[in-house]
Structure formats: structure tokens, C-alpha cells
């Protein structure tokens, strides 16, 4: 499978999670590209700088932090413009600060799925990691299982 991990990350948490997923999938012999959504200036100008093309992937893993209980504005802008393959297989990796999914993660996941809806995605899994939680390592393991162990899901 041709797999694209598309990630937005300002302080490295979501990027680290996505790099872990990339390494696992590469270890399984998959063809994986990790590409970053970037902005011109995180503090002063959050217009998009890099908006990776993603129409070539059979499977996309979107990596995003929660910002203001929601999908960050740059990710929303990226998803509004991006083109994905019709029927793309979709996984989502989310990091957040607060220690409850309802303080942003759940809503962010729903927004991400809604933004993909026009491509009729086959959603197969997601992970939400609370970066300051004592359960963080367990959450990371569960997230990795959810987005890298897709045998039998399609
Ligand atoms: C502007 C802003 C808004 C945030 N809003 C939330 C929030 O609503 N809920 C939450 O749990 N964490 C929130 N956070 C924390 C980030 O989601 C968390 O630190 C995340 O892991 C950052 O990911 P990154 O290092 O990949 O940028 C916010 C962070 C920023 C900078």
C-alpha cells in the first residue's frame, strides 16, 4: 500500500507520534511517506506554507494536535483544499494537553472525519494521546495499534 502520513505539529508532540507510526509501518515493509503541513510563522502568520499533495495515497494517516477544542485552523484550511483519492483509507492521530478526550480530542476527530467525507473515506482507526497524562504510554500503544494494525480491516 502507498501510505501517506500527513501531519501538522507546532511543538513536536504530534510529529513524534506520527514518526513512530511511520517507523512501525516501514518495518512492516509498507511504502510510507511522512509529509508536514506547515505555516509561514506559527506566531505571526499561520497561513499555509507547505500543503502536501495527497491524492496518490491508498491510505492516509492524518496527525494533528487539538487547538481550542478543535482541529487547528491551518489543518482545517489544508483539508478544505486538499485532494485525496476517492475511497481513501483514513486513520487519525491526535495529541492534546488535557486528560480527557471530550476536552478536544473527540471533537477534533469528528471535524477531521467530516472534512474527509467528500472523498468517501474508509475510516479504520484513530488514537488520541493526552501528552501530560500518566496513561500516555498506554495511549500511545493503543494509538499505534489502531493506525498500524490494519490487517483484516479492509
Ligand atoms: C493555541 C493552542 C490551543 C490548544 N487547545 C487545546 C485544547 O483545546 N485541548 C487540549 O487538550 N489541548 C490544547 N492545546 C495543547 C495541544 O493540543 C498539545 O500541546 C499538543 O500535543 C501539541 O501538539 P504539537 O506538539 O504537535 O504541536 C492547545 C495548544 C495550543 C498551542
**What is the approximate shape?**
globular
Number of domains: 1
CATH class, named Alpha Beta
Averaged pLDDT? 97
For the record, the CATH architecture stands as 3-Layer(aba) Sandwich
Number of helices: 4
Which cofactors or ions or other ligands sit in this model? flavin mononucleotide
Fill in the CATH topology: Rossmann fold
Q: Which stretches are low in confidence, meaning pLDDT under 50 for 5 or more residues running?
A: none
DSSP, total strands? 6
Instruction: State the share of residues found in helices, binned by percent.
Output: 25-40%
How many angstroms does the end-to-end distance come to? 12 Å
Describe the protein's architecture and organization.
Strands 3-2-1-4-5-6 form a six-stranded mixed β-sheet, sandwiched between helices. It has helices at residues 13-27, 73-81, 105-116, 136-148; strands at 2-8, 31-41, 45-50, 59-65, 89-96, 122-130. The longest helix is centred in the first third of the chain and has 15 residues, at 13-27. Helix 3 (105-116) links the parallel strand 5 and strand 6 (122-130). By secondary structure, the protein is α/β, with parallel strands linked by helices. The structure holds flavin mononucleotide (FMN). The site of flavin mononucleotide has 19 residues, from helix 1 and strand 5.
Short description:
This protein has helices spanning 13-27, 73-81, 105-116, 136-148; strands spanning 2-8, 31-41, 45-50, 59-65, 89-96, 122-130. The chain is an alpha/beta fold. The protein has a six-stranded mixed sheet with strand order 3-2-1-4-5-6, sandwiched between helices.
Amino acid at each position: 500500500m502507498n501510505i501517506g502520513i500527513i501531519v501538522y505539529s507546532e511543538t513536536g508532540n504530534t510529529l513524534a507520534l506520527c514518526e513512530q507510526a511511520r517507523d512501525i509501518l516501514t518495518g512492516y515493509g509498507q511504502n510510507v511517506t511522512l509529509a508536514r503541513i506547515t505555516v509561514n510563522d506559527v506566531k505571526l502568520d499561520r497561513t499555509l506554507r507547505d500543503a502536501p499533495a495527497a491524492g496518490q495515497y491508498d491510505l492516509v494517516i492524518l496527525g494533528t494536535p487539538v487547538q481550542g477544542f478543535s482541529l487547528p485552523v491551518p489543518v482545517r484550511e489544508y483539508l478544505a483544499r486538499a485532494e485525496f483519492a476517492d475511497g481513501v483509507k483514513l486513520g487519525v492521530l491526535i495529541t492534546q494537553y488535557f486528560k480527557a478526550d471530550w476536552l478536544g480530542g473527540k471533537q477534533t476527530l469528528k471535524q477531521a472525519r467530516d472534512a474527509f467525507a467528500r472523498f468517501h473515506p474508509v475510516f479504520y482507526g484513530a488514537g488520541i494521546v493526552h501528552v501530560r497524562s500518566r496513561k500516555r504510554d498506554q495511549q500511545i500503544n493503543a494509538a499505534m495499534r489502531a493506525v498500524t494494525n490494519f490487517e483484516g480491516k479492509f
